[in-house]
C-alpha cells in the first residue's frame, strides 16, 4: 500500500486539530500555515473528513474546524481508510476485491498476513497516542548533550 498525500495530509490536519483542541475552532488558513499545506488542497480534504463526522465546523468571524471527538477516539487506520479507501496491500484483499487465482494462490496467506499486521498496527494508533509519544520524545531530548562532568576519584 502506498499512502497518498491526501492520507498523509489528513493525518497531519487531524493531529494539528488534536494538538490545538483547547483553542476552539481553528481557521483552515491557520492549519494550512502551520502544516505548510496549500489551503486549496485542504479544501479538497476537509469534505472527506466532514462527511465522516471527524470534525465540527462553523462559519463566520470565529469560524473554523475542531475535532468532533476526543483524540483517543480517532485511529490512524480509520483515517487512512477514509482517505485511501483501503489499507490492503493488494486489491484481492479488499472487501470487494476478486482475483481469478484467489482459490489457488499459494502466496495469498503471505499478503493476508501482511494486511493483518498493518491493519492491527494502524488501528492501534490513536491521535492521542501519537501526541503523547511526541511529547515524551521531546521531553526526553531536553537536556541531552548536557551531561554532568565525570566524577574524579
Write out key terms for the chains shown.
two-stranded antiparallel sheet, 6 helices, 5% strand, 153 residues, 2 strands
Structural notes for this entry:
- The chain is mainly α and 153 residues long.
- The protein has 6 helices and 2 strands; from the N terminus they run αααββααα.
- A two-stranded antiparallel ribbon has the order 1-2.
- Helix 1 (5-19) crosses helix 4.
- The longest helix is centred in the last third of the chain and has 17 residues, at 108-124.
Provide the β-strand percentage band.
5-15%
Residue-averaged pLDDT: 88
**What spatial order of strands do you see in the largest sheet?**
1-2
The helix/strand series, from N terminus to C terminus, equals HHHEEHHH
Structural class category: mainly alpha
Helix content: 40-55%
Summed up, the helix count is: 6
Distance from N terminus to C terminus (CA atoms, Å) equals 58 Å
Low-confidence residue ranges: 145-150
Query: What is the molecular shape?
Result: globular
Count of strand segments: 2
* Biggest pleated sheet: 2 strands, antiparallel
Described by its quaternary structure, the protein is single chain
Provide the gyration radius in Å. Answer: 20 Å
